[in-house]
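FORM 7B: Structural annotation worksheet

SECTION A. Query
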Amino acid sequence: MERLSDIGEIKRILGAHGFTFSKAMGQNFLINPSVCPRMAQLCGADDKTGVLEIGPGIGVLTNELCKIAKKVVSVELDTRLLPVLAETLDEFGNFKVINADVMKLDLNKVIEEEFEGMDVVVCANLPYYITSPIIMKLLEDKLPIKALTVMVQKEAADRLCAKVGSRESGAVTVAVNYYSEAEKLFSVSRGSFMPAPNVDSAVIRLNVADKPRVDVKDEKLFFKMIKSAFAQRRKTISNSITSGLGISKDDLNNACEKAGVSPTARAEALTLEELGNLSNAIYDIK
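SECTION B. Predicted structure
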């Protein structure tokens, strides 16, 4: 359906199905006709690729993905949108929708069953309220995917794509960089959505690494340390990590010396390699 960026057509379709927007689900549908084709072209899909989409809405981005990908599988939580998608995407035989909560879904199983023999990428306009949890699930589940191309709130994009070791970085920045290389592709104004949100957005791509970008001896310890270090980011790591991990300052200072890191540094000042080294030094001492 070629008129999915037309507000009048969108209102007609939604009205015919008795659909109203849910703030609780963070529903803001893309209507800018230039954004979705651009996202689809930049996500890395082609006629040999499978695309996993999360939250297709009424199918504006899905429509563009179906034109270039071998297969598109969209995960949609809102059952009210299923008949809408059946109408807007009825011309595509390479589309399937799964009615489920992506946070509870076994995505490795979905990929295995739906995309056999294909390279797989993720492309989605993510709800603002659950952006980081979804991204972290996609990365932590260690899915066989090449890249994630997602639309997120501009502030979230800045944080996700920040350089580890800069003032803009946070715990999620470190986590994303552990699994992937992040890049901002382009900005999207708030007027590109219906209803329009109160903030602008940006499209980012996370190019997933074949293996974590830093070697750590204990991933669970590494992420617990990261969470502790950034939870009190104004404090030095000597204070924030000792309280978070329940280790003595002497042990932490010894770990810092072994890792070549100053105990008076703040977490935001440390590189990914330094954080990995510190985690390994703490592991050895504990």
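SECTION C. Observations
The chain has a mean pLDDT of 93. The longest strand covers residues 180-188.

SECTION D. Sign-off
Analyst initials: ____
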